[in-house]
Amino acid sequence: MFVSRIKHIEPFVALLRRKFSDISIAGTSSQDEGRAEKVLAFRSGEIRILATTTILERGVTVPKSDVYILDADSALFDEASLVQMAGRAGRSKDDPAGVVIFASPEWTVSQRAAVKQIKSMNRIALKRGFLRAAEQRTD
């Protein structure tokens, strides 16, 4: 789960822990000295929900992951960052589709452009045989 600001992580994690007390939940950011350990625990499945800033937008692969971007309408999230965050979803031959949710009260130009770019890249991947038709979601 991506949030737009570091100061939102702890309150959000506390909220999630109250709602999902049986699931291991953590939060991390660039200011967290234990972020590497938390990311490893998330990758291994020890942590099931990780709330973070864009520190995980690139280079982190967690198979069978879904992505929720809170405050997706934030000016801090441009088209490129939204595409990169969305790219963390799926990342596995067992679950290549993954779910991506842009949570916001309104659609922004950046969100619309990111969705358009992702759909375009998925069409290209489908044509080149990198995706099977059943793996591509269009909603």
Description of the structure:
The protein has 139 residues and is an alpha/beta fold. It is built from 4 helices and 4 strands; from the N terminus they run αβαββαβα. The protein has helices at 9-19, 35-44, 79-86, 109-127; strands at residues 25-28, 49-52, 67-70, 100-103. The strands form 2 sheets. It has a two-stranded parallel ribbon with strand order 1-2. Strand 3 (67-70), helix 3 (79-86) and strand 4 form a beta-alpha-beta unit. The protein is globular, with a radius of gyration of 15 Å. The model has no long low-confidence stretch (mean pLDDT 88).
Task: Write a brief caption for the model.
By secondary structure, the protein is of the alpha/beta class. The protein has four helices and four strands. The strands form two sheets. The chain has a two-stranded parallel sheet with strand order 1-2. It has a two-stranded parallel sheet with strand order 3-4.
